[in-house]
Amino acid sequence: QVQLVESGGGLVQAGGSLRLSCAASGQSISRYNMGWFRQAPGKEREFVAAISLAIIGTYYADSVKGRFTISRDNAKNTVYLLMNSLKPEDTALYYCAAEPSSARTIVAGIANYWGQGTQVTVSS
């Protein structure tokens, strides 16, 4: 069992930056591919970014490519999402996820473990 707790969300102006953190407990994240998703009010949850357990590959949604960067620190059991050049349409509840099989499984929207989310609000 893996417990995931997100932090770092908040209110930021358009063009600003935020760094989200996802702290894991229960097991080492070195066993897991990790990812971030988001869900805006009235919309379905969507994939944002994923990173493979061996840090070989990273994957991004087209809407965030070039602006967001996913990284992981296995020693700290933490995954990060650095978000630059934020836009009002990035406003959402951001979730962390862990999946043992592959990062591509996360890209498909499937993961074994999910956090509770952290709210990101971007004002125009």
Describe the structure.
It is a single chain. By secondary structure, the chain is mainly β. It has one helix spanning 103-107; strands at residues 3-7, 10-13, 18-25, 33-39, 46-51, 58-60, 68-73, 78-83, 92-99, 113-114, 118-123. Strands 2, 4, 5, 6, 9, 10 and 11 form a 7-stranded mixed β-sheet that branches. Strands 1-3-8-7 form a 4-stranded antiparallel β-sheet, with no helix packed on it. A hairpin with a 6-residue loop joins β4 (33-39) and β5. The longest helix has 5 residues, at 103-107. 36% of the residues are buried. The mean pLDDT is 96.
The profile of the biggest β sheet is:
7 strands, mixed
Instruction: Give the averaged pLDDT, no decimals.
Output: 96
Q: Radius of gyration, rounded?
A: 13 Å
Q: State the end-to-end distance.
A: 40 Å
Helix content: under 10%
Overall 3D geometry? globular
**H and E string:** EEEEEEEEEHEE
Computed structural class:
mainly beta
What is the number of strand segments? 11
What percentage of amino acids are in beta strands? over 45%
| Uncertain regions spanning at least 5 consecutive residues | none
Count of alpha/pi helices: 1
